[in-house]
Amino acid sequence: MRPAKRADEELEILPDVGADSCQGAGLDRTADIAGEDKAAREQCGGCAQAWDSGIRVVVVSDEARAMYNGGMAGLTYWSPNVNIFRDPRWGRGQETPGEDPVLSGKYAASYVRGLQGNTGSRLKVAACCKHYTAYDLDNWNGVDRYHFNARVSKQDLEDTYNVPFKACVVEGKVASVMCSYNQVNGKPTCADPDILKNTIRGQWRLNGYIVSDCDSVGVLYNTQHYTRTPEEAAADAIKAGLDLDCGPFLAIHTEGAVRGGLLREEDVNLALAYTITVQMRLGMFDGEPSAQPFGNLGPRDVCTPAHQQLALQAAHQGIVLLKNSARTLPLSTLRHHTVAVIGPNSDVTVTMIGNYAGVACGYTTPLQGISRYAKTIHQAGCFGVACNGNQLIGAAEVAARQADATVLVMGLDQSIEAEFIDRAGLLLPGRQQELVSRVAKASRGPVVLVLMCGGPVDVSFAKNDPRIGAILWVGYPGQAGGAAIADVLFGRANPGGKLPMTWYPQDYVARLPMTDMRMRAGRGYPGRTYRFYKGPVVFPFGHGMSYTTFAHTLSKAPNQFSVPIATSLYAFKNTTISSNAIRVAHTNCNDAMSLGLHVDVKNTGEMAGTHTLLVFAKPPAGNWSPNKQLIGFKKVHVTAGALQSVRIDIHVCKHLSVVDKFGIRRIPMGEHSLHIGDLKHSISLQANLEGINFNNDVPSLP
Description:
This protein is α/β, with parallel strands linked by helices. About 25% of the residues lie in helices and about 20% in strands. It is built from 21 helices and 28 strands. The radius of gyration is 26 Å and the shape is globular.
């Protein structure tokens, strides 16, 4: 998707404040990062919107408009990537919010609102949710995205793959959706009317345009050989609901399709109308940019001190503390005067901003950040992250023997994981593990392993090594990443991030093809993500430690709820009371279906900290998922010894429903178990049949 992509190229000139994605961020960064004021304050992520001392700072769209006003950028941004991070080897997982559909959906809607603004039909910039749908393979074991046919069940489409895109359109009101290169069940996504015209525009009511990934229409003809002629490909795509082609294919072949009777001129006009309408909402026909809303934004609004401070805050919030034995961290400036800083990512710059990132205002590398706190001894230990030799390990061991503490900054970069580069396995590349183990053995003081990478890695060796006291995952932390890492290492910042994906052992992927799209476990198949896989893990979804401790108390929660059924006999006859579940479509899914859960969070430690409260639900026994699933989350800052009350709203239709094998969303009746940290609480759902007139009819149950 890299070549000739105007909208993504616009991202290239923005400062690194996370315009395209939250590059491998912890759960704190992949939550309510944008949109409504309260949501932004609770889950600032730096991707689209943040709060600085209570003042609203909409960074990305401000800088985008500033660039547009200066003639240096457009206003359509092909962002965010909200595909589910299904397989840990996927090279583009780093761009996504993670593996959970509820998290990804909330991220998607919030991100879009933050970019597009909240000024009625007018758009500040136009966001685009990509890549629709079931796209999470780039190039693995001889299979690439241009040839891949993703075979996906109706259940998994509704339950997992389509959830973030629906949230983008229905809740975020996104201006565009991008269809992907791959086929889904034998049809190219950009030529399938069921998923474009019928779903995105029909069911979800998209107010905007549908765009292809770059040259996707050409791919379905030239590579997938889906049609006999290029004119048929152009006609099929436009009739399916595609409005805009990234590439020349439709420009070349659409006229021929119309002349050949394959396509009506009215179809072309409609696609054009959807596209031009978004341009009008952006103000592109309203005269000079300076005379438009946001026309006051200019060069002075790019790379401001507040924006650069936000980049630091975002990096702080994205760091996840995976291990901290015997309080290895934080380090002390009084005891750790000299720090050995070792590893191929210890003094990098561009690596920190990941892929599809902007031009940074400036960089602080991990080495530079740590140097602000202590004297440093630096050794790379490897020639790059590939680490193909061990020639430099000896010098790294010497440095570790001389220092009061050792920090190893290891991991990956875009040569290992990227667009069109999926990983073969989950281990650290080359001789990195040897470097870490030998340095840890030689070190005079405590050893901290810092992992800079987008996707998960199997570091079981380090988790189980008592000589490695702490492990941090920092993702690709952005321009201020080195400063943020150092702040966390020395306790100026207290880590509060949570893993947005499962970290699996290497054995998990050894015999698991990326091409198998099934989510659910069964018949020797392990299942995907924490929702369906229950085998051994290195670190679980939602894991993340702090320098302090928190305790939860459930202060208020309902014990039961009566689910109203639509009063028509037809709806009752066609719901499935027999399987003890009600179709969501046959209930009144309004605000009255929302339940308030009140939790008191107390900081029982000695240091102020930020805690992300995760609420999981497990449905009653039946033919549903046997595992708990995330249904809500909220971040709260609590000072030492203090208590904060948190309310999380649980919508019965959205959060306590399940999807059956036919792709129908239903609400199971019975006991739903809620899990909040170490707390458990049950809510009993019962069908309310009041108002239904049976008229001596016996309902027939499917």
